């Protein structure tokens, strides 16, 4: 199924904001510690790229709403709660970037990002059935909740720590909703574990890589004008990001959220968690032992 990209400059309406557990007014923006954040290049990359990707949410989520249109419960939740909350994440992160790094022309850089991103997202597709798409969404929410957990742990600024924590809680709640819908569809459609595993692996391969590379390229150009952002440069920045996040990345949480839809028995899950923990020491080389 093809995704049609749509304008992502949509403002959060007042009625949408009331569906949130928090609003932008709950963030103490005037307490941002700009001095301590001035030298945080890695956090600059993490927050600006997140603000771009989150702000582009409605380039593809309307297709997801339409995909589940025949099921009133999930379609209503997606439209009235999930989409509004995802858009709010983008608005909040954009405001944080604009207030913390005033040299960064967010609107101009985002326009360049979106022009490239919108071409790429036109070729993205949904899973072949609703059960597998629901589990795919679980993996997306696992990735974002882990990402914001790590940002909250890494941030020396209490305001960013609070903002990342609020977004993290939203993403975990979204995971629980998608997991519940996944369970309903799995029982209804008789989806097998092998199919679920393949959907999980497909989404894990897709997670963030291309989107973040596009966003990171545009953010990097502001910090290093005139420097070509090639594959080597991207890998170097990614290495620095992994090292910075290594102590705060919630490996066990993300592993449990990934394995949960497979409904493994206790011993198999325990072995799988151990293997993931070992692998994490390669991917996150500075991560301390559990």
Would you kindly provide a written description of the structure presented here, covering whatever features stand out?
This protein has 290 residues and is mostly helical. The protein has a single domain, classed as Ribonucleotide Reductase, subunit A (Orthogonal Bundle), CATH 1.10.620.20. Helices cover 70% and strands 0% of the residues. The protein is globular. Mean pLDDT is 85; it is low at 1-19 and 285-290.
What's the gist of this structure?
By secondary structure, this protein is mostly helical.
Secondary structure class reads mainly alpha
Measured distance between first and last alpha carbons: 42 Å
What is the H-and-E element order? HHHHHHHHHHHHH
CATH class wording: Mainly Alpha
CATH superfamily: Ribonucleotide Reductase, subunit A
**Could you estimate the helical fraction of the residues in percent?**
over 70%
Beta-strand share of residues = under 5%
Output the number of helix runs: 13
CATH architecture: Orthogonal Bundle
- Total individual domains: 1
Task: Report the C-alpha radius of gyration, rounded.
Answer: 19 Å
Outline: globular
Q: What is the CATH topology?
A: Ribonucleotide Reductase, subunit A
Got a strand count? 0
Main beta-sheet strand count, sense and barrel state: none
User: What are the segments in which pLDDT stays under 50 over at least 5 consecutive residues?
Assistant: 1-19, 285-290
Average pLDDT over all residues: 85
Features:
13 helices; disordered C terminus; mainly alpha; globular; disordered N terminus; Ribonucleotide Reductase, subunit A; 290 residues; single chain
């Amino acid at each position: 199924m093809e995704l049609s990209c749509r304008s992502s400059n949509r403002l959060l309406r007042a009625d949408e904001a009331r569906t949130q557990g928090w609003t932008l007014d709950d963030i103490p923006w005037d307490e941002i510690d700009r001095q301590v954040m001035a030298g945080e290049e890695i956090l600059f990359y993490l927050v600006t790229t997140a603000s771009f990707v989150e702000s582009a949410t409605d380039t593809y989520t309307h297709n997801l709403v339409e995909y589940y249109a025949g099921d009133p419960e999930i379609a209503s939740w997606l439209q009235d709660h999930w989409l509004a909350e995802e858009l709010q994440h983008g608005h909040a992160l954009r405001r944080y970037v604009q207030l913390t790094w005033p040299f960064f022309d967010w609107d101009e850089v985002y326009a360049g990002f979106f022009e490239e991103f919108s071409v790429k997202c036109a070729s993205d597709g949904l899973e072949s059935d609703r059960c597998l798409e629901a589990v795919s969404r679980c993996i997306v929410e696992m990735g974002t909740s882990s990402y914001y957990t790590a940002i909250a742990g890494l941030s020396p600024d209490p305001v960013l720590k609070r903002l990342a924590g609020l977004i993290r809680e939203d993403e975990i709640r979204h995971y629980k909703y998608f997991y519940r819908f996944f369970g309903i569809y799995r029982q209804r459609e008789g989806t097998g574990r092998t199919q679920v595993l393949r959907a999980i692996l497909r989404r894990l391969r897709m997670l963030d890589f291309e989107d973040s590379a596009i966003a990171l390229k545009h953010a990097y150009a502001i910090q290093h004008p005139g420097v070509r952002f090639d594959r080597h440069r991207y890998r170097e920045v990614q290495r620095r990001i992994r090292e910075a996040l290594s102590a705060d990345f919630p490996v066990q949480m993300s592993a449990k959220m990934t394995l949960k839809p497979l409904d493994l028995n206790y011993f198999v899950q325990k072995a799988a968690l151990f293997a993931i923990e070992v692998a994490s020491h390669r991917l996150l080389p500075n991560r301390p032992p559990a």
